[in-house]
């Protein structure tokens, strides 16, 4: 007779009440059921819930929340009407202080579980002053086809089904206003639905250093089309003009063409624009002089400007620059960190694979009259080993990789350059721990970890980690 394992005792479709005894950064509560871990989205420790089992794997299961029977003390009514359907936010059911506690604890747990790092010097998380309306960029999907109604919104969690909603609480009200105008003007201008629109993006910059006022914001709108024809130009121009007239903060309008359905939302070709070619973002500088960064349609900027000002300040503190250091800024984007730290060191070399971002970086250095910064286009995996080969070294290495973290080639090259300090800015705790394990095995140790909440209401977490060589 087949031996029964735990999974056989749990039935898909079974409804029960569960005590939530664990929780994840992604906003899933964990219950124990017949000895197995059961993940239930939108719940957390202290909740007692009714849920339906939806999926059973060998070692764990997943259930759908049906009802909160007894709420945890910090449970609140999620302010957004589409929370739980839309895939954007995972933590709106917790009050903000509880979200911060979850993030801090989950970072500690990840360091312990994946890296056996105990007693790390982890600072309290740096929370946001305003955990709503903070995003400076939004991208929404659009359905605009003959025979179908116009739809604009985010995708449902783990699906490609569109949820219509202009009022997202993570974006500023001016974005919602502009989306409403877009809804009104698009059918009036493109009556025959000629434009093959797939996505709409809005970006904002703080166009003066007074970032509290909404009128100090300038906007860029980018429509992504599946294909481009010359005769679309008049329609796009008319649409852009109408929008710019009604919403004067819209100063730049672009068309992007992206033939691909998978991969990044933006393609490489921008066949049309109206208004400003670039916008200028004011970032809080590390000196008296404000820092201006030019932002094009494809430039990467951190999405939470208030918190990224704090993040850059933390990077500078961790780097402990005295004015004499040669600094490497790997994964530098348009050079935000390079230019921020430049007044405090001898020189900065920024490395970035997106050629346009490197061009923006060079332009930004000229605009801000920073002479001792250079930007190199190329993959970090190729350029850093080449530096090692040529005997080029740096005193401080700043690493700000995407979610997947750094490859071993990059970390080995950083180690070989023997800097005094590494400052690692991470947006994914799991890849951060993997990379710090690699470095600790080569004689580095973690001196300080500072988590920063760049993405309130969501399960994303940023942190700044200072590493230096173990003392002999
Ligand atoms: C998290 S962003 C950091 C940008 C910048 N430090 C900032 O704060 O604005 C990561 C950057 O790394 C770049 N990037 C990703 N993989 C890369 C690679 N293998 N080599 C060089 N740059 C890369 C991306 O294009 C992106 O600009």
TrEMBL record:
GO terms classed as biological process? rRNA base methylation
Show the GO MF annotations: rRNA (uridine-C5-)-methyltransferase activity
> Can you tell me where the transmembrane regions are?
none
User: Where is S-adenosyl-L-methionine annotated to bind?
Assistant: 302, 331, 352, 400
What EC number(s) are associated with this protein in UniProt?
Answer: 2.1.1.-
Looking up NCBIfam families in the UniProt record yields: rumA
Q: Which family does it belong to?
A: Belongs to the class I-like SAM-binding methyltransferase superfamily. RNA M5U methyltransferase family.
Q: What is this protein called?
A: 23S rRNA (Uracil-5-)-methyltransferase RumA
Q: Provide the organism lineage as a comma list.
A: Bacteria, Bacillati, Bacillota, Clostridia, Eubacteriales
Write the gene name: rumA
């Amino acid at each position: 007779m087949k031996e029964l394992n735990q999974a056989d005792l749990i039935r898909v479709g079974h409804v029960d009440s569960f005590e939530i005894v664990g929780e994840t950064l992604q906003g899933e509560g964990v219950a124990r059921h017949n000895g197995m871990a059961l993940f239930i989205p939108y719940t957390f420790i202290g909740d007692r819930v009714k849920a339906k089992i939806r999926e059973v794997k060998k070692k764990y299961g997943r259930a759908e929340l049906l009802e909160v029977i007894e709420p945890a003390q910090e449970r609140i009514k999620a302010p957004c009407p589409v929370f739980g359907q839309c895939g954007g936010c995972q933590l709106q059911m917790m009050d903000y202080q509880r979200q911060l506690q979850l993030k801090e604890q989950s970072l500690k747990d990840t360091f312990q579980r994946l890296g056996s790092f105990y007693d790390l010097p982890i600072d309290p998380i740096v929370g946001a002053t305003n955990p709503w309306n903070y995003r400076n960029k939004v991208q929404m999907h659009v359905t605009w086809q003959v025979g179908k109604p116009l739809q604009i919104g985010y995708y449902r969690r783990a699906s490609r089904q569109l949820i219509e909603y202009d009022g997202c609480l993570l974006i500023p009200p001016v974005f919602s206003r502009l989306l409403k105008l877009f809804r009104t003007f698009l059918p009036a201008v493109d009556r025959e639905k000629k434009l093959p629109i797939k996505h709409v993006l809005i970006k904002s910059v703080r166009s003066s250093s007074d970032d509290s006022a909404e009128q100090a914001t300038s906007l860029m709108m980018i429509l992504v089309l599946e294909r481009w024809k010359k005769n679309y130009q008049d329609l796009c121009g008319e649409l852009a003009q109408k929008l710019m007239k009604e919403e004067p903060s819209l100063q730049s309008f672009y068309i992007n063409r992206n033939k691909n359905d998978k991969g990044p939302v933006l393609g490489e070709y921008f066949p049309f624009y109206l208004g400003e070619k670039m916008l200028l973002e004011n970032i809080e500088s590390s000196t008296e002089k404000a820092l201006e960064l030019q932002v094009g349609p494809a430039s990467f900027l951190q999405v939470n400007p208030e918190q990224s000002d704090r993040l850059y300040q933390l990077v500078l503190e961790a780097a402990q620059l005295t004015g004499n250091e040669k600094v490497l800024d790997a994964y530098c984007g348009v050079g935000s960190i390079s230019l921020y730290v430049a007044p405090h060191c001898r020189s900065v070399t920024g490395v970035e694979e997106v050629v346009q971002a490197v061009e923006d970086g060079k332009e930004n250095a000229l605009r801000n009259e920073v002479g001792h910064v250079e930007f190199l286009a190329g993959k970090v995996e190729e350029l850093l080993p080449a530096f090692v080969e040529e005997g080029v070294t740096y005193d401080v290495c700043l690493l700000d990789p995407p979610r997947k973290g750094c490859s071993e080639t990059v970390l080995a090259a950083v180690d070989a350059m023997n800097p005094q300090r590494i400052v690692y800015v991470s947006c994914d705790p799991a890849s951060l721990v993997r990379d710090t394990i690699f470095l600790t095995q080569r004689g580095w140790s973690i001196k300080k970890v500072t988590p920063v909440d760049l993405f309130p209401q969501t399960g994303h977490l940023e942190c700044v980690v200072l590493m230096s060589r173990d003392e002999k």
